[in-house]
């Protein structure tokens, strides 16, 4: 917890005691007031959970991972981190077959940003893969992706919910095993994020995933979307690289 957060916590407690006695911090000239932005962040337990990582532990882990990155991993790392730090949008795909170090890269990115108290949402297409990611969940449960999908689907994220707030505040979203998810699921997430992020800036409506920095990863030679009785062509058409989103994607390759 930072000193400012600690101060806000203390001021909230003092304010509660004062209010119980018919007074308020505002009645005392020169007394600081709690930081309103932090109060709303505290009230969202999903955001609080993401802020609870031990900063020095994250930094130590990051430095250890970073020192081991290969040149390929390091250049992808810098490309992604610079987008986050410069508050620019980014839609990336990290392509690499099993064992090329995608998860290692995700862990290095996550520890870097968490060491700076930024929010990283780690999801995977399958439950098993999500267990390998730090703080991982399945994409379907995190983004409330509907089971039945079509070209107009949107995710069922309630307005003013904690999840909506968490997504809005997220600095980086990492989605592993992307090739096995139907493109309609990414398109539903894209529409939902555009809608959700236009509150922050109207121009986000025109950016892929509402201007978020999102990293998809996986290997198209492993598992593709499962569609009962579909032909090979239909399966290929259901992959993310057949989506309208793909032309916006910056693809990186991990080869070793
Ligand atoms: N730069 C690195 N330095 C040291 N070890 C690494 C590095 N990159 C990856 N590894 C190690 O190599 C192994 C495979 O890496 P990792 O699990 O990240 O690959 P992956 O591409 O995610 O594989 P999969 O797609 O099968 O999940 C792991 O044990 C990981 O710790």
From TrEMBL:
Assigned keywords, A-Z: ATP-binding, DNA damage, DNA recombination, DNA repair, Helicase, Hydrolase, Nucleotide-binding
One GO MF term attached to the UniProt entry: ATP hydrolysis activity
EC number annotated for this UniProt entry: 5.6.2.3
The keyword Signal appears for this protein: no
Pfam families per UniProt: PIF1
Domain DNA helicase Pif1-like DEAD-box helicase: 68-256
Catalytic reaction(s) noted: ATP + H2O = ADP + phosphate + H(+)
Source species, domain of life: Eukaryota
Cofactors, names only: Mg(2+)
GO biological process, one term: DNA recombination
Family: Belongs to the helicase family.
Name this protein carries in UniProt: ATP-dependent DNA helicase
Organism of derivation: Arachis hypogaea (Peanut)
């Amino acid at each position: 917890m930072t000193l400012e957060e600690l101060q806000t916590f203390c001021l909230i407690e003092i304010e509660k005691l004062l209010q119980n006695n018919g007074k308020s911090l505002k009645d005392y000239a020169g007394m600081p007031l709690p930081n309103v932005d932090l109060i709303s962040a505290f009230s969202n337990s999903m955001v609080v959970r993401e802020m609870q990582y031990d900063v020095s532990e994250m930094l130590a882990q990051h430095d250890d991972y970073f020192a081991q990155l290969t040149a390929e991993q390091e250049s992808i790392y810098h490309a992604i981190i610079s987008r986050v730090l410069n508050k620019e949008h980014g839609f990336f795909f990290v392509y690499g077959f099993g064992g090329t170090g995608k998860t290692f890269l995700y862990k290095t990115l996550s520890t870097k940003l968490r060491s700076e108290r930024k929010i990283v949402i780690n999801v995977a297409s399958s439950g098993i893969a999500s267990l390998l990611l730090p703080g991982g969940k399945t994409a379907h449960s995190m983004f409330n992706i509907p089971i039945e999908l079509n070209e107009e689907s949107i995710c069922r994220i309630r307005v003013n919910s904690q999840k909506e707030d968490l997504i809005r505040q997220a600095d980086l979203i990492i989605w592993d095993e992307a090739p096995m998810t139907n493109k309609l699921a990414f398109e539903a997430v894209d529409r939902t994020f555009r809608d959700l992020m236009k509150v922050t800036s109207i121009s986000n409506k025109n950016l892929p995933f509402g201007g978020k920095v999102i990293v998809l990863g996986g290997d198209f030679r492993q598992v593709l979307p499962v569609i009962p009785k579909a032909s090979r062509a239909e399966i290929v058409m259901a992959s993310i690289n057949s989506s309208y989103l793909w032309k916006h994607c910056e693809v990186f390759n991990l080869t070793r």
